[in-house]
TrEMBL record:
Similarity comment text for this entry: Belongs to the Cob(I)alamin adenosyltransferase family.
Organism of provenance: Variovorax defluvii
Official protein name in the record: Cobalamin adenosyltransferase
Span of domain Cobalamin adenosyltransferase-like: 8-165
EC number, as in UniProt: 2.5.1.-
EC main group: transferase
Residues covered by region (Disordered): 1-23
InterPro entries documented for this protein: CblAdoTrfase-like, CblAdoTrfase-like_sf, PduO-typ
Sorted UniProt keywords: ATP-binding, Cobalamin biosynthesis, Nucleotide-binding, Transferase
Catalyzed reactions: 2 cob(II)alamin + AH2 + 2 ATP = 2 adenosylcob(III)alamin + 2 triphosphate + A + 2 H(+)
Alphabetized Gene3D superfamilies for the sequence: Cobalamin adenosyltransferase-like
Amino acid sequence: MGNRLTQIATRTGDDGTTGLGDNTRVPKDHLRVHAMGDVDELNSHIGLLLCEPVPDGVRELLVDVQHQLFNLGGELSMPGFTLLKADALLQLDSALAEHNAALPRLAEFILPAGTRAAAQAHVCRTIARRAERSVVALGAQAELNDAPRQYLNRLSDLLFVLARVLNRVDGGDDIYWKSERLARAAAAAAAGGDE
């Protein structure tokens, strides 16, 4: 494992390279650095989401997710090393099942909107998907454990579900896409009720 940071401004990156956790240096546009950066950005946006009022259970879950994302980023920075454990995936699966059970079925696609907290959860979801794509791209060129890719995939699903949960905190609801299919179904239902 690489040394812990003792200073931030080292100037060693001035040549366009960065150090990995195993003390090797790679170009800053390397796929591994992209993946690490996307995971870091996701973690930062979850920190922003935590600035919003969210239920205590959701807050505790997201704080733990931040720690797991730090492990995930560490694993990406140290080729061949494992930091993300299987119980991290199980925690996401359990949270998905718990929160999904409390939500009504979707009638149509929803917009990434609603309360500030829900909208920020949607931002986190999209960054999680980008981080997942970066990890997949890296995995096509380097050997990676499955857990980072699986974690990001499950996390993006959970963030979608949490956005729906957060829209309901004060009695709100999903913001549905105004699709033509829904409009026709509503018109047909209204016409059937007029007979």
